[in-house]
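Re: that chain you flagged

S.,

Sorry for the slow reply, it's been a week of failed gels. I finally had a moment to sit down with the sequence you sent. For the record, here it is as I used it:
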Amino acid sequence: MTIDLLGPDPIYQQIAAVVLERIEDGSYQPNRAIPSEAEMCAEFNVSRNTVRAAIRSLNERGAVRTVPGRGTFVVAAPPQQ
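Prediction finished late last night. Pasting the structure tokens below so you have them in one place:
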């Protein structure tokens, strides 16, 4: 998925969608860190504030959790019942 810097959707939402897609397809494994803010800034060519907004959105959805001093990790899927 490509980020459309001139499109109508906010860039942070587009980045969150890319990360979520990578979580769903297994590129980012449960209980493992996603790329750092700096790495995501470089990959998507955006500011740190934009990446932080994307991560905040993913945190609110329950897809990731941020551990201060450690990074942001994919949340393990809840057990099937």
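What I noticed first: The chain has one domain: 11-74.

Talk soon,
D.
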